[in-house]
Each structure stands twice: as structure tokens, then as C-alpha cells.
Specification:
Pfam families: 2OG-FeII_Oxy, DIOX_N. By secondary structure, the protein is α+β, with helices and mostly antiparallel strands. The chain has one domain (about 5-335): Jelly Rolls, CATH 2.60.120.330. Helices cover about 30% and strands about 20% of the residues. It has helices at about 5-10, 30-45, 60-75, 80, 135-160, 165-170, 260-265, 315-335, and strands spanning about 25, 50-55, 95, 110-115, 180-190, 200-205, 210-215, 225, 245, 250-255, 270-275, 285-295, 300, 310-315. The strands form three sheets. It has an eight-stranded mixed beta sheet with strand order 1-2-10-7-12-5-4-3. A four-stranded antiparallel beta sheet has the order 6-11-8-9, with no helix packed on it. Helix 2 (about 30-45) packs across helix 5 (about 135-160) and helix 3 (about 60-75) packs across helix 5 (about 135-160). The longest helix has 26 residues, at about 135-160. The radius of gyration is 19 Å and the shape is globular. The two termini are about 25 Å apart. The chain binds 2-oxoglutaric acid and fe (ii) ion. 2-oxoglutaric acid binds near residues 184, 215, 224 and 275. Fe (ii) ion binds next to loops.
Length: about 350
């Protein structure tokens, strides 16, 4: 059942439903390419979320290394982290408990650092001497490996849509000025002993604005939940039952973002997802995750093969998506105050 967004926000039902999330092994990719491609396309059409396992790159030890570096960044004093504070117009830098989701109207209980590959030598990346020497080279290398894998996945979608195989690679060039792909390092604070009211989330329900998100998690640090039931990339309809996704080190949880949903004329589904605050009695220690957002370059034109939506640049797409989402927040606040927006 699809429930209007405004009602959904109010009820914040804790109901969960176990659903099978497709698990796709990338083992022996070249020899098994056509099988893997078919599995990925089917997962994007029917599920929106899927889990990649057995990828050659990035390896489990490379992922673990990046988690260690992530922990060392977030362990720095706030005054040092604030030297590269978040700049909204650039989608770059560090923020703490400041991202307010339209679905909750409350700040996410997390801190994050957003980085773009082409800015690795700029002041938008932290460079304090207290950071490990490997921070820059290892994180940059990890971004390249995530990007390359992302392009492999996007090539399956290109073929399914009738575009050339390298169509999305040409749209996602990460070492030029108008690149938008972003790695977000995430730290959900240790909340041991605290019981948050049900309206508080580590990350409130949202969809991603990019083409393809690749999420790395660590075993034992659960909390991600997904919700099927969205028919159009512009809608706020979501189902009413959430499915937890178990975290496992080395696996990559992939989800379609709104940009690819639009680019595929709504064929590939971008779903709402959220991260819950664990209750007393559960693991309430810190949770870390790494989200790599494959997002087309600003000047790329987006239009699906069926032309369901007018063509627009990836930059305008993003600006419109932000306006739509935050307009939703204003509408919700006005409804709560008994006025109409
Ligand atoms: O940390 C997670 O599990 C999810 C993060 C997420 O959905 C996001 O940053 O968009
Ligand atoms: Fe997300």
C-alpha cells in the first residue's frame, strides 16, 4: 500500500517486514558477465536495492583500511574538523547533527564528511597534520575503485535502456571541474544509555538524488532499513513496511537514486531508506558507514529513452530535487502549525 508522505512522517510506524534483498556475486565477472548483468537489471527494476558480494575491487582489506581512516578523522577535535566545515553549494566538507531531513524535520543524529575526487588537493579536503599520512592517498584510491565498480554496474543499466555500454561512464567523469560524484564518510554517534523519542533517526527517511549509491557497512553496525512502494521519481509515496538490511563488512549495498529513476523513465526504482536509532539493550555504540554517490557531471543532459520527462542538466536536476524535498519540509511544518503552504 502506498501511504502519503505527510501521514507516513507522523506515524513513523516501527513495523518491519523481512524481504529478500537480491544478493549478486561478482565472482569471475568477465566469464559470468551476461548472468550478472541480467541479475543487476532485474534487481534495479523490482527491488531498487541489491547487495554486491565477492567483488575483486575494492577488496575487504581496502574497505577496512578506509573505515580505520574514517574513524581517525571523526576522532579529531571538533575545532579541527570545523576547519573544513560543510559548504552546501559545493556539497563538500564536515557537518555534525545539521542535516535536517524533510521526512522528520529534525537533525540526523550523525556527523559526515563529503569529498569529491577532483578536489583532493584543494582546501575542501581536511589536511591537518594530526590526520594519518595515508588519509589522502588511500581515500583517493578507494574513490577511484568505487567509481570503477560503479561504472561497471551502470554499464548494465545503459545496455538495458538501449544506450551504448559506456554511456554512463561518459556522463560520470570524476577528475574534471563539473564532477558531482561524492564519497560521504559517516559517523553515527555513540548513544549508549540514551533512549531517543521515535521521531529521532540516525538518518531520517529519504531517497538519494544520485544515479547509484554504493554503501559500505561493518558487521554488527546495523540500522539501515528500506521501504519499497515508490512509482515516480518526483513522488513522496512510500510503502508502510520497512525491511532491515543486515550490515556485513566487505559487502556493498547498492541503491538506485532519483537521478537514474528519472533517466530510466521511472523503470529503475529509487526507494526511501533510513537508519534507526538503536534502543537501550541494542548495540548503541558508534556506527560508521561509507556512501559513494555516483552522480552525473553538472553539464550532462538527463532524459530517458521514452522521453517521459523533459531533458535537463544534472545540475538543474539536483537543484530541483533539493527544492522539491525542502519544499516538502516547509509544507509539513505549515500543516503542523495549522496553516496551509
Ligand atoms: O549509513 C547508512 O547506512 C545510510 C546512509 C545514507 O542513506 C545516506 O547517506 O544517504
Ligand atoms: Fe541515502
Amino acid at each position: 500500500m502506498t501511504v502519503p508522505y505527510e501521514q507516513k512522517i507522523r506515524s513513523q510506524t516501527p513495523a518491519t517486514k523481512s524481504r529478500a534483498i537480491p544478493r549478486i556475486s561478482l565472482h569471475d565477472y568477465e566469464a559470468r558477465k551476461s548472468i550478472i548483468q541480467a541479475q543487476i537489471i532485474e534487481a534495479a527494476e523490482n527491488s531498487g536495492f541489491f547487495i554486491l558480494v565477492n567483488q575483486a575491487s575494492p577488496s575487504v582489506s581496502e574497505i577496512e583500511e578506509v573505515f580505520d581512516l574514517t574513524q581517525s578523522f571523526f576522532a579529531l577535535p571538533e575545532s579541527i574538523k570545523a576547519e573544513t566545515s560543510f559548504i552546501r553549494t559545493e556539497n563538500a566538507g564536515w557537518e555534525s547533527k545539521s542535516q535536517i531531513r524533510p521526512s522528520t524535520g529534525l537533525p540526523d543524529q550523525k556527523e559526515s564528511l563529503s569529498l569529491q575526487y577532483h578536489r583532493r588537493h584543494s582546501g575542501l579536503w581536511p589536511s591537518h597534520p594530526a590526520l594519518p599520512d595515508e588519509f589522502h592517498p588511500k581515500i583517493s584510491e578507494f574513490m577511484v575503485k568505487s567509481h570503477n565498480l560503479g561504472m561497471q554496474i551502470l554499464s548494465c543499466f545503459a545496455l538495458a535502456l538501449g544506450f551504448p555500454e559506456d554511456f554512463f561512464s561518459k556522463a560520470h567523469v570524476v577528475n574534471v571541474d563539473d564532477a558531482q560524484s561524492t564519497l560521504r564518510l559517516l559517523h553515527y554517534h555513540d548513544i549508549t544509555g540514551s533512549q531517543f523519542p521515535p521521531s529521532y533517526w540516525r538518518a531520517g527517511a529519504h531517497t538519494d538524488y544520485d544515479c547509484l549509491t554504493m554503501l559500505y557497512q561493518r558487521t554488527g553496525e546495523d540500522g539501515l532499513e528500506i521501504c519499497p512502494g515508490r512509482e515516480a521519481h518526483t513522488s513522496f509515496g512510500m510503502g508502510d513496511q520497512w525491511t532491515p538490511v543486515k550490515a556485513k563488512t566487505g559487502e556493498i549495498v547498492c541503491n538506485i537514486g532519483d537521478m537514474l529513476m528519472a533517466w530510466s523513465d521511472d523503470r529503475f526504482k529509487s526507494l526511501f531508506h533510513r537508519v534507526r536509532c538503536p534502543s537501550v539493550g541494542e548495540n548503541q555504540r558508534s556506527r560508521y558507514s561509507l556512501a559513494y554517490f555516483n552522480q552525473a557531471n553538472k553539464n550532462v543532459e538527463i532524459q530517458g529513452p521514452l522521453g517521459k520527462y523533459p531533458a535537463m542538466t544534472a545540475h538543474k536536476y539536483l537543484m530541483d530535487a533539493i527544492k522539491r524535498n525542502y519544499g516538502q519540509l516547509e509544507k509539513m511544518k505549515a500543516t503542523q502549525n495549522g496553516t496551509s503552504a
